[in-house]
Amino acid sequence: MEKELKKQKLDMLNGSIWNKLPVFALPIAATGILEQLFNASDIAIVGNFAQTDKTAAVAAVGANSPIIGLILNLFIGIALGANVVIANAVGRDDKQTVQKAVHTSMVVSVIGGVLVAIIGELIAEPLLTALNVPNDVLELALLYLRIYFLGMPVILLYNFEAAIFRSIGETKMPLIALTLSGILNVLLNLFFVIVLKMSVNGVATATVLANVVSAGILYIKLVKSDKYIKVEFKKLRIDGKVFAKIMQIGLPAGIQSAVFAVANIVIQGAINSLGTTVIAASSAAFNIEIIAYNVMNSFSQACTTFVGQNFGANKIGRCKKTLFLCLIEDAIASGTAILIVLITGKFLLSIFNNNPEVIEIGYTRLVIIFIAYIFSMLYEVMSGYLRGFGFSLVPAILTTVGVCVLRIIWINTVFTANRTFVTIMTAYPVSLATTAVLIFIALIIYRPSKRFANKGKEKA
């Protein structure tokens, strides 16, 4: 497998780290931003060209964001478990485990997608009703969500395929696949809404079809790959032992990510109670702020993968260097992204909806959320570091307390006493600061670099 390892475009086990982190992270950031543009283009196009109430159409798509985020975050976390298992196996030079993990991941993604689609169709209406979606938005929101659920098998397949590529340092291929499907998504959005006079059903259909293309491209590349991540149809099965390892790391990571979505569903319910204009403003702002979040989160994923491979190779010193470099480089990259978004924020908001009130409320959200990102960056990178060593449960538990529980308490106490949009948004910096402190304490207690320092001969 040594020859195959040399074919990797990014050698995480040897040489300098600082210059390789952005090479790995920034394509992930670009992929995440492009993925979010699927949703952003939906909102922008229905907000400008829908034949029905444009504000209601924007609100309908936005009202679904927390539900979709909950599901995707859960399975993306599980996919991250596959990433860690494969990365560890690569570091150990264990081709057999790599192959088993790759094929197990593919099967799990499809089965998971089918189950989510079936369950989602059954509970779609109760979910939206529980979120206090206004009556003038509910019908459109339900239509969008039902169509989106139908595409879950291919949506999850793409995310697992992307995790497979990233585990060996290949981050450009998922970006290329998503770029092509993203262009198709925008073109189909315009065709369905402007030419066929469709509304949210048109943009939802376009999103699903675009995801079919991105998943298909990566599947073909995996089948044709001459590397050790090559997919063979006859090998597609779930290996019990490998599946258990993936779930041991991935399920807590998925729960950790999903906790944010659970808390955001509660927050979305509070936002929905303030009316259609506030929903539209918050939705538009979310689709802009997520640009900076993807830049920030990409270094967390880089930290997990670099630490995962080097831990597998017993190069503990490189794991420690990865943590510190990720924190520094993430601060620089995220700060730059936030500055650009704040400068252009009002213009970007006007693309989604040119209502002055929507723009003002949306910009307020951007400012408060970006204050919270200071703490989010610390929390994300430290959690990624712990996951690389296989410590996934503790960050998940601490996130549940720091994010989910605290935000629910905030909405049911502070917001109840002062029902304003600013009060809702303040829950973000408060909860993320608390979570960052908790994760830092966990890092000090576990100190994985010291715990595993004597595991075999250090090669750092």
From TrEMBL:
Keyword Transport: yes
TM ranges: 21-47, 67-90, 102-123, 143-163, 175-196, 202-222, 242-267, 273-292, 323-343, 363-382, 389-410, 422-446
Keywords, sorted A to Z: Antiport, Cell membrane, Ion transport, Membrane, Transmembrane, Transmembrane helix, Transport
Compartments reported by the entry: Cell membrane
Membrane topology note: Multi-pass membrane protein
Superkingdom field: Bacteria
Cited Pfam families: MatE
InterPro entries: MATE_fam, MATE_MdtK, MdtK-like
NCBIfam families, sorted: matE
Family label: Belongs to the multi antimicrobial extrusion (MATE) (TC 2.A.66.1) family.
Job description of the protein: Multidrug efflux pump.
Name this protein carries in UniProt: Probable multidrug resistance protein NorM
Organism: Ruminococcus intestinalis
